[in-house]
Amino acid sequence: MKKALIFGGGNIGRGFIAQLLFQSGYEIVFLDVNNVLIERFNKDRTYPIHLVSNESTNTIIVQNVRAVYSNDMPAAAGEFIDADIISTAVGVNNLEKIAPVMALGLQYRWNYKNLKPLNILVCENMIGADEYFRSSISTHLKNEEQKYLEEKVGFVETSIGRMVPSATNAESDNPLEISVEEYDELPVDRDGFIGEIPEIKNMIPFSPFDFYIKRKIYIHNMGHALVAYLGNLKDYTYIYQAVNDIFIKSVLHDAYKDINNAMSKEYNMPIEQLEVYTADLIRRFGNRALKDTVERVAKDPKRKLSANDRFVGTLKLCNKHNICSEAILLGIAAGFHYRNENDDTSMEIQHFIQDNGIKQAVINFTGLHEEEQYIEGILTYYEELKNEKFLEGYYEKGYSCRR
Questions:
Q1: DSSP class of residue 167?
Q2: 41 lies in the same domain as 168
Q3: How confident is the model at residue 312 (pLDDT cuts 50, 70, 90)?
Q4: What is the pairing mode between strands 178-180 and 203-206?
Q5: Is 254 a domain residue?
Q6: Does the pLDDT at position 167 exceed 80?
Q7: pLDDT above 50: residue 332
Q8: Residue range of the domain that includes 304
């Protein structure tokens, strides 16, 4: 049986990638630091994934599963010797943390004279995550090993569309049980593979891949975060509540109109195709059974408001095509209002605002140093959002660009 290693037994690793690999005939070996999960994986060797929608629930039983404690570097590295494919699903901030064991695992593999190509699916929400991860691993290898890394290891960027709200099913005493949405396509970068592209269920290789990763970050992730930050201002608990708010949905439609136009121009893509995609996203955001929370989607605003991420990257692409998006400026302003005592980056932003003022905070966290027209628009919306009735005015009147 083919063997797949998955770094990260949480939302995406356990709730998405493992399903596709199991359905494609792989043994699944999770590498994680959570002892509760590891012990249960090794005890049960199986776990359920519930595919939930507003209409139904279906269950898939993932089998042929085991786990290794990734901080036990010799044990984890030993799994690389006969691995057929690897996936990461640890979060962008943790890629550097797993780079040393990745490097050691590759050294073990090559020392055992296994020079077959090995591909790594980099399942992280970050543009350029493939090259970032390659560089992180390379620093732990010797010169001659770096050559093997270049020739024998493929780093494959992916676009993770499935929404998995929590790695824990609150209604179950099984820590492995997980509920996810039905969507299960996995677009990947065809050009990232070394050697033969493996056959994995619903994995769709594309080239060039830039369109698909930008579509995920600038449309899916941007829209999701916009709904979350506006939903937070209206004290909603769940994403489905926020996206069904008539005022928030109005802003979301405006944001999608703008970025669809920009993406269509940038990639010579029929706008009708993008409109179908965004309409389906809005439907999926409204999945009540998923119970996706505003808090989960809004978390880590420092990263989400940063230069070239979902908001600022979208803003710049729109500007490139002479589209000024008031809705995206409004989303950024709402992000600066997000305050959660349990979210370290949220509190970092709030403390910075308190000490330095909102204008300096916008410049500091978004990297918009020279785009004064954007800064002024964000500041205006930031002040207007202090009025809880403001979104009703946006819906009723609409806004023209402040440029």
A1: S
A2: yes
A3: very high
A4: unpaired
A5: yes
A6: no
A7: yes
A8: 211-397
The CATH number assigned to the domain holding 92 equals 3.40.50.720
Say if residues 95 and 59 touch (Cβ distance below 8 Å): no
Secondary structure (3-state) at 285? helix
What is the arithmetic mean of pLDDT over 202-228? 96
Q: Are residues 185 and 269 in the same domain?
A: no
Distance CA 396, CA 38 (A): 53
Structural domain count, the chain: 2
> Per-residue pLDDT for 166 more than 80?
no
Could you report the per-residue pLDDT of 45-74, keeping only the tens digit for each? 999 999 999 999 999 999 999 999 999 999
Pick from 285, 146, 139, 165: nearest CA to 226: 285
Distance CA 123, CA 371 (A): 32
Are residue 283 and residue 190 in the same domain, yes or no?
Answer: no
Instruction: Check whether 195 has a pLDDT greater than 90.
Output: yes
CA dihedral 364, 298, 402, 254 (to 10 degrees): 150
In the predicted structure, residue 370 carries a pLDDT above the cut 80: no
Distances (CA, A) of 118 to 74, 82, 125, 151: 19, 10, 22, 10
User: What is the reported pTM?
Assistant: 0.89
Q: Give the integer Cα–Cα distance in Å for 68 and 104.
A: 15
Question: Are both 160 and 225 inside the same structural domain?
Answer: no
Whether residue 108 is found in the same domain as residue 250:
no
CATH of the domain at 283: 1.10.1040.10
User: Which residues lie below 8 Å from residue 328, measured CB to CB, with a gap of 6+?
Assistant: 222, 226, 255, 258, 259, 311, 314, 315, 318
Helices and strands counted in the chain (H then E): 20, 11
Burial of 198 (0-12, 13-18, 19+ CB in 10 A): middle
344 CB-near residues (< 8 Å, 6+ apart): none
Last residue of a domain, one of 156, 176, 206: 206
Q: What is the DSSP letter of 216?
A: I
Rounded Cα gap, residues 227 and 3, in angstroms: 39
Instruction: State how far the Cα of 304 lies from the Cα of 364, in Å rounded to an integer.
Output: 13
Question: Are 201 and 219 within one domain?
Answer: no
Is the Cβ–Cβ distance between 105 and 79 less than 8 Å? yes
Identify whether the C-beta of residue 325 lies closer than 8 Å to the C-beta of residue 258. Answer: yes
pLDDT exceeds cutoff 70 at 1: yes
Torsion of CA 246, 251, 257, 262, to 10 degrees: -160
